[in-house]
Amino acid sequence: MKLKLKIWRQKDPHSRGKFVNYRLNDISADSSFLEMLDVLNEELISKGEEPVVYDHDCREGICGACGLYINGRPHGPDSLITVCQLHMRKFKNGDTIVIEPWRARAFPVIRDLMVDRDAFDKLIQEGGYVSVNTGSAPDANSIPVKKVYADLSMDAAACIGCGACVAACKNASAMLFVGAKVSHLTLLPQGKVESNERVRDMVAKMDELGFGNCTNTGACEAECPKGIKLTNIARLNREYYRATF
Amino acid sequence: MSGIIISSLGKKLLMSLAGIFLITFLLLHMGINLLVIIFEDPMVYNKAAHFMSSNILIKIFEIILFGGLLLHVIFALILQIQNWLARPKRYNKANYSNTSFFSKFMIHTAVITLTFLVIHFLDFYIKAKFGHAAEIIVDGVAYHDLASEIMDKFKMLPFVIFYIAAFIFLGFHLIHGFQSAFKTLGLDNKKYTPVIQVLAIIYSTVVVAGYSIIPLIIYFL
Asked: In angstroms, rounded to a whole number, what is the distance separating the alpha carbons of residues A73 and A81?
């Protein structure tokens, strides 16, 4: 495949940054998107230029480290996958691919396509946990949980914290992420105990970190690689009102 | 409790409640407007308008209505500015995510609707309220002849076009606003959300058609 790449290059958080065009002439349609970037970086290094910096880790679609805004969509043109699971057969020979970092005030660019997602860690620190001594693994079903709640909680727990929801949202809102974390914990008896403090603290932190506000457009749900549902945002709203009034 | 004004979710809650209140008011207003074309006698409408501007309960309701509108607009503005600030550097390639179409233009349709409201307020409401309109005296009570005012206005094509265009944009605003308000209230599940979405489309269509039919009938008949 022959490709034209338009990639955001930025030296450090304080420099302005700009798009740089690259051409690749021999890319296998079976290679992954990140392998394609690796090929580009090999070429850049051999020419003595700086390689394009981007985040990645497991390359199995489960860690949440990778995340690129490709042709107007977080994680690229496929659904329910992270960018490491995206393959070049999703593109056509001769395509121009525009690659940008996540854009949000709360996710400042560190370099090129890598952003600082500390904001998500700070949100988790505000209540994305259960404060009990876990000890060794308890007996299965020692605390009965209704199947419907167990399923809803498990679905919300699938969130890998990649930040695609914030990247996709026209308001750079973190409501789907916070909604998933709150749902995941509050639906279970272990998490219910601290549910009021959790939701109040996480929402206050979310506002403080400079995320935008949810307008229920559904872009987050459409782009989430783990299929986290918009209903988690409604649950977050309900939990917040319950905790506040 | 104090967090309700400060927090984003609190502002959105109040904004959605005000929105739902305005949604119900639009139906009431439409019902009264339709009297102009339903009844040949203009006094039916004039009497209804007189009741709306003189009844004490309606006057209290009016204060709540303006309060609700103001709240909806002010909080929308604050939230929108925060939204713009949340992404200081925009994407080069526009967002191609699959989203509900009208949700992307809420602030734009809001600005158009607000502009219409200001003009409507200056042009009609103040006249009706403070008596710049012609008067008709029936049984010793003076009524503003607002029906004739409407008839005169809607004989002019620019008024008709401006009025209907404004309501089409309001319809776009309502299609998303109606269902979004419920989600903000925390009401979103597999069973009811599709029903609410259909209701949103029906409601918006009824509002646009109900208001637009008045100038159309007056202009063409």
From this structure: 12
With beta carbons less than 8 A apart as the criterion, state whether B32 and B49 touch: yes
Nearest to A163 by CA among A224, A81, A88: A224
The last residue of one of the domains, among A83, A110, A137, is A110
CATH code of the domain in which B35 resides: 1.20.1300.10
DSSP state letter for B41: S
- Do residues A14 and A73 share a domain? yes
CA distance A129 to B179: 32
State the nearest Cα–Cα gap between B6 and chain A, in angstroms.
9
A108 part of contact set with chain B, CB < 8 Å: no
Q: How far is CA A30 from the centre of its chain?
A: 25
Instruction: Count the domains in chain B.
Output: 1
Measured CA distances, B36 to B49, B150, B151, B210 (Å)? 11, 8, 9, 12
CB-closest option in B1, B8, B98 to A222: B98
- pLDDT tens digits, one per residue of A137-149: 888 888 899 999 9
Task: Identify the three-state secondary structure at position B106.
Answer: helix
Q: Residues A137, A240: one domain? A: yes
pLDDT in tens, chain A (245 residues): 999 999 999 999 999 999 999 999 999 999 999 999 999 999 999 999 999 999 999 999 999 999 999 999 999 999 999 999 999 999 999 999 999 999 999 999 999 999 999 999 999 999 999 997 777 888 888 889 999 999 999 999 999 999 999 999 999 999 999 999 999 999 999 999 999 999 999 999 999 999 999 999 999 999 999 999 999 999 999 999 999 98
Whether B95 is in a domain gets the answer: no
Residue A68's nearest CA partner among A93, A40, A33 is A33
Using a CB–CB cut-off of 8 Å, the residues of B that contact A are 1, 3-4, 6-13, 79, 82-83, 85-100, 103-104, 106, 176, 179-180, 183-190
In a domain, B72, yes or no: yes
A165 torsion bin: left (phi>0), alpha (psi -120 to 50), beta (else): alpha
